[in-house]
């Protein structure tokens, strides 16, 4: 009967061949933009950049093969590379937990479902959109410079640090603050996750005599763990690739004294200012490997603490 | 009960005040006369002046603010169209169609979400350079037509998966092949995801400083964030006022978008973390 | 969302606009068949931009078939963008370079050999051969000097008078390092640093080296100094820093040659070492009182030299080299342009124009002319070209000094690191 239906001529449509073949062909048809994109803009460049990482390439002359030289220099002879790696590690290690912690805290606050929660949710989310812009980074730089808002507020509390962006000990903190300021996005995700936790679980726990902290530990966290993993992975990857904030706050130099020299910023300097594209490509691959390993570790470790409620996934 | 409710509101409002202070400060600083811009902690200017804006509207590097605004707009809208079209097509293929290699390809697509942009940056740059496309809008828009934003493909795949298969079957029974099923059944139902994609694409493209920085080279092609950067590079110390005025202008479209579509935005973000 | 019609119409409109935008955005930018359009870029502050644009307007009036688009930025940003532009194949036609970058860009085949233009489109007869040499590499003219400058100490007399000190300003006057240090300490006692910490720039280290009979780079492009030399220099600045005679690290770290970040202009220091081509910028950014004094020296050699602060070069990939060369020659040789440009890039390179400009000089121009005249007897000839890699050496020099002043590395270690990385950069 189906065959008869399919064979019925339909206006403006060619005769439909056997269903399975149509599916496969059409599948590739629908997929063609993505396929082209993946081949030309992803896989191709990935292979090319891997090749470039073994060359000395200044964009003007042809690439010159140097073998493992770039990697050797990077790991053994380049102080700034390790410095940038350290700065980035510090950046990720501080900004991600702070951001997620804040996001969870505010999400829990908003979960009390009072009137106006929707409005609050949107208001908290706004910085996430604005924060990635050059404009806000400029504001941040101004606010955290000597004599700026942050300086004065801290001075009012007796902490005389001077402008954060001009001091190597504090400059990175200003950049981290900018990142943490954008906690709205993970917060919204946490909120949605919190809303999915069945109230009965809390009620049951309360009946069993569990206090607020215990309920958080035994009900909230486990039920939220998939969302937590999602946020953790996404924010970590995002943090490793952070560029605009550090670039604008340090005026592209990564200073003062390389204290805000994030890995991506150093990569940009090497590639686009020093014309060492081969070296920059090598740096990019190292970043990819690090992110890949870290993500894999996060997922591997997640088996121990992530709990899936297991309903029809 | 009421007292606790007030306390809750108070706490949230306090946090929000601190959180939104930089934004408010930016707007107020843009209306302050030159001497006051960095000087005052107070949010209100002693006398609000539109001078900063006048200066900005006078143009940067020989072009008016509207020129840069238009550039940003063209690129962002181009990106939106590209993403909406290509990602929905790809998502439909992954979610509903059967073809060899679907599984591994889907897995690969997911992994590209974590691919750092920098790995493909330089070869992509070289490709566009050889094609003579550097210093045009193409490198910023063309990839969007090729579904390179795996995040949105994933979002839509999850969305389509949630649609009941009976709809597709009904369409097939009515004589629709995959193409018509997509066009008349799936796409309309996909609208919330499409809207989310459109909004996020617009905002992220508008803010995409790095790509604009490397691909756009002369002021005729600059976008608003880039123009803001040259403005900063060119002006003297006392010009923080105009710089902030320009910053406000650069953020305005995002702000407007946000107010208009906040519901979709926030819901879009929320659902992205949940399905699957 | 409106009804389907509204949305659809909106979509169509958006697509149309976007396509139109993309099409226009993807063209080269309005290169009509008749008039030629060239791009001219330079670094500098606002008044250098103002006078340069005025000169360019004049050129366009004289050459109605050539349109010149101009761009400018602060030094750091300028070179960041220039590299990217050149690499992306969107190189400007006429560029401004300095000693650190001329060799670099020539080495990467970015610049056109102007030898074929010299004597025809580009007239260099009015430029003293010693100055002209500042734009030559291996005997070929790759760039033309855009001015002549020498080093100076820009200072605010009011600040120094309050401290009871008077820097030597005028012909025949000079001071020793000890006297200089003493003055700085006296100024520091009044609450502001005597001068911006000058250890940040390799340029001032060069002056110090000359005073000791050494040089930055040898004739064959290798390093001309040792870590010990640099240690001595940075110890000198370190002692001054300890006595608060020079600016605190937070101020020094912002130095990038631009006025907004200058220690003197932001009133964190009473003076600043720079090239006198910046004097007019100081006068307009800070105030009319700024005067110039020579750098201190302990011996006969002042260490100061006459050199082009900037040179103009034509890009090899330019599609309109002839037009660019014409503009270059105009800027350097045209009397009207010379008058407009004044001393924004130091003394005019063309000797005849220089006499004209200095003869009729007022205010800022007069300050520069006077200063140059007062030190004319003691400045040496233009120093050798900086080799390829010198731009990276200059950047690393500042970076390491950042570490030194913030106490993250010792002077000796820092000096060793500079020498080490410099050798790597020069070797490339």
Spans of at least 5 consecutive residues with low confidence of chain B: none
**Span from first to last CA of chain A?**
34 Å
CATH class of chain B: Mainly Alpha
The main sheet of chain A comes to: 2 strands, antiparallel
Radius of gyration of chain A: 26 Å
The CATH architecture name of chain A reads Orthogonal Bundle
Can you describe what's shown?
The complex is a heterotrimer of chains A (313), B (276) and C (428). By secondary structure, chain A is mainly α. Chain A has a single domain (80-305), classed as Orthogonal Bundle (MetI-like fold), CATH 1.10.3720. Chain A contains 14 helices and 2 strands, in the order ααββαααααααααααα. In chain A, strands 1-2 form a two-stranded antiparallel ribbon. In chain A, a hairpin with a 7-residue loop joins β1 and β2. In chain A, α9 (184-195) crosses α11 (212-240) and α11 (212-240) runs antiparallel to α14 (277-305). Chain B has 276 residues and is an all-alpha fold. Chain B has a single domain (65-272), classed as MetI-like (MetI-like fold, Orthogonal Bundle), CATH 1.10.3720.10. Chain C is α+β, with helices and mostly antiparallel strands and 428 residues long. Chain C is 46% helix and 10% strand. Chain C contains 17 helices and 10 strands. Chain C has helices at 4-26, 46-62, 75-87, 99-107, 129-132, 157-162, 177-189, 202-211, 227-242, 249-252, 279-285, 321-333, 335-341, 351-359, 363-375, 390-405, 411-427; strands spanning 36-43, 66-73, 94-97, 136-137, 140-141, 144-145, 151-155, 271-275, 291-293, 311-314. In chain C, strands 2-1-3-10-6 form a 5-stranded mixed sheet. In chain C, strands 8-7-9 form a 3-stranded antiparallel sheet. Chain C has a two-stranded antiparallel sheet with strand order 4-5. The chains are: A mainly alpha (313), B mainly alpha (276), C alpha+beta (428). Chains B and C meet through α4, α12 and α13 of B and α1, β2 and α3 of C.
